[in-house]
Amino acid sequence: MKKILVTAIAVLMAVGASGQRGEGSVTVQPRAGVNFSSMDEYNRTKFGYTFGMEVEYQMTDMLSLSGAIMYSDQGAKDKDEEGKEEIFDMDFVNIPILVNCYVAPEVMPGLAVKVGVQPAFRTKASVRYDGMKYDVDWLFKELDLEDTKLSKFMLSVPVGLSYEYNNLVFDARYNFGITDLFKGEGKLRNNVVQLTLGYKFDAVF
Fold first, then answer.
1. Domains within the chain, CATH numbers bracketed
2. What are the Cα distances from residue 189, in Å, to 12, 41, 51, 158, 177?
3. ∠ CA 66-181-80 to the nearest 5 degrees?
C-alpha cells in the first residue's frame, strides 16, 4: 500500500508540474469555445462560437506573453413590442495580446490571471428580423444612411483566468468593448463572455 501511495503522489506531482513551463519556453495552443455577447440597447445575450490558435512565450516562472488569432461570432439579441426577435450578428477576427501571471507557480502551476488588449477586425455583419436576413452595410447604403456606419475595427480589453491540467487549458475571460461600433450613433459597445478549451503543444524550432 505504501508503494502505491508513493507512486500515486509522484504521478500527481508530475501532472501538476505539466502546468508550469520553464523560462524561455514557447507553446502553441489551438482553442475553441463559446461566446455570450451583449450590446448596449439590446436586452438579450447572443450565443456564438470562437476558435483559433494561440502562441505563448514564458518570460519567467510567473509571467508569460501570449498572442492569438481567433475567429469570433458576436453580436446581441432583442425583441420588439410585438415579440418579434431581432438578432444582430457580427463576425470578427480577434487578435488578443495578453500578459499572463501564474499567481502560484509552486502550489498551482497551471493557474493564471490575464489581462491585455484585443484589436478586432470585422469580416461581416447582418441583422435577422421577422424571418429575414439583411447585410448591415448593404442596409445602411440602401436606406441612404451616410452618417451611420458600422465600424470595421473594434478594440477590447480582455480580463480573465485560465487553468492548465495535463496540457488541457480551460480559459474564461470577459472582453470589455471600449470603442463604439457605430459611427454617427450613441455609445454602442460589444461586451463578450468567452469560454474556451485548448491543448498546449511545446513549440519545436
1. 2-202 (2.40.160.20)
2. 44, 9, 22, 14, 5
3. 125
The span from the CA of 44 to the CA of 134, in Å, is 20
Residue 147: exposure state from Cβ atoms within 10 A (0-12, 13-18, ≥19): exposed
Half-sphere exposure of 195 (CA within 13 A, CB side): 4
Note the pTM of the prediction, 2 decimals. 0.83
CA separation for the pair 21, 90 (Å, rounded): 36
Cell of 129: 428580423
Q: Are residues 196 and 31 in contact, defined by beta-carbon separation less than 8 angstroms? A: yes
Assigned C-alpha cell, 44: 438579450
CA atoms within 13 Å, Cβ hemisphere of 191: 14
**pLDDT, tens digit, for every residue of 135-183?**
887 877 777 666 677 888 999 999 999 999 999 999 999 999 999 888 7
How far is residue 5's CA from residue 98's CA, in Å, rounded to a whole number?
Answer: 39
**Grid cell for residue 80:** 420588439
CA distances from 31 to 52, 63, 77, 133, 188 (A): 5, 21, 26, 30, 28
Separation of alpha carbons 23 and 3, rounded Å: 33
